[in-house]
Amino acid sequence: MESLKAVFFGPDPQAQMRKCNALIRQNTRQLDRDLNQLKTLDSKTRQYIINASRRAQRNPSQAKQALNETKTFARELVRIRKQTNRLSTSRAQLQSVGMQVNEAFQVRKIQGSLQKSTAIMKDVNTLVRMPELTSTMHQLSTELVKAGIIEEYVDEALPDDSLMEDELDEAEEEVDKILQEVLQGKLSQAPANPVTQPVEEIPVAAEPEEEFEDQEATLSQMRDRLEALKS
């Protein structure tokens, strides 16, 4: 029955609106899942930085290695936060699209016609290029075109500058800010003269080495997760 109505009277605006809203909710849930994963990675990485710094204090012979380790984890934290900011911005754009789409359908209900929105089209074109949302955003753009809210999507749209940001740019200034933020007030928790008895040097030295190997494996896993969120 619905298909026959669509043939003779065109698509049902209410059905179109429900489908668009369903796709927007689906994309929002995906972004929320990704943001929660990034939040967990952020917390773990902060703790790894603190652990490495404490190890440097309690065992001076490991200080150089631990310093390199803190910077490595700080660079990972820079990547994580850039990705978090990007996804948070995308989520806000998606919410904006949802409100504008509902408003457009309400105007259509009152006036009996729709006006194409360049603002919605711009946001959709930005979001559709995100690896996390490409598939469902293509579906949403198709539905919005059918509803007459946006022009037909063109894949060769001008790239958005925010998406061209080099996420691998690990400026030392950013790394230093991360270290200052994470380690502020933490170093005082470690003893000022950690190793006072030579007898304890051997077991203490062995423990950080094992910990370092574990954290190297963890770092590799974190990078894999971060890359997975981008693909």
Automatic annotation (TrEMBL):
Regions of compositional bias (Acidic residues) in chain numbering: 207-216
Organism: Penicillium ucsense
A Pfam match: Snf7
Polar residues bias locations: 187-196
Name the record gives this protein: Vacuolar-sorting protein snf7
GO BP field: vacuolar transport
InterPro entries the record matches: Snf7_fam
Region listing for Disordered, in residue ranges: 187-218
Organism lineage string: Eukaryota, Fungi, Dikarya, Ascomycota, Pezizomycotina
Superkingdom of the organism of origin: Eukaryota
